Amino acid sequence: xxxxxxxxxxxxxxxxxxxxxxxxxxxxxxxxxxxxxxxxxxxxxxxxxxxxxxxxxxxxxxxxxxxxxxxxxxxxxxxxxxxxxxxxxxxxxxxxxxxxxxxxxxxxxxxxxxxxxxxxxxxxxxxxxxxxxxxxxxxxxxxxxxxxxxxxxxxxxxxxxxxxxxxxxxxxxxxxxxxxxxxxxxxxxxxxxxxxxxxxxxxxxxxxxxxxxxxxxxxxxxxx
Length: 224
Known about the structure:
Elements: E1 3-7, H1 12-23, E2 27-34, H2 42-52, E3 57-62, H3 95-110, E4 114-116, H4 132-145, H5 147-150, E5 157-159, H6 167-176, H7 204-215
Parallel strand pairs: 1-2, 1-4, 2-3, 4-5
């Protein structure tokens, strides 16, 4: 069976990407990261999605990007609320490059040429490492920097099936594939409650999620 390694944060995009890879007949391996993020609750969602979609193996790698800081997700910088312009302070320095590098290392060990990422260039937060030219550059680097590629055993491909879809289109695709979005998490600034953390409904990620469900004509199952 052909293999796919899928970066899985537990959010809408990465979870839908996993559902797409699964639907395309790949044997899926999921990779998540505990990197000191403020919204670590997303890892619980990643675990639930991985189980629900029956991945072959789900690996969670831990490292501490709080030591580097520079982002509202990994430092004491306040998470912005409302819509913002430009590259937001929720941008984590070099995050996708770091994530994809770990993915490339595991993919080389697994002899898995297909690395899936839920990057999106339409409804996204302005992050430079979600652009198609970035993904193409990383793919070129991957085939220059790895033993199996240099020896001609594998040609790595970075798959980004959501790249040119709106958030509403992504959600509709996931629903069609049977993905349960109540398992996913998007909020950057979880609000602690007596029972379970709740989304703040004000951060850019929450607003983008709301926009997607509204435009898809659906109710977000997290709000029930």
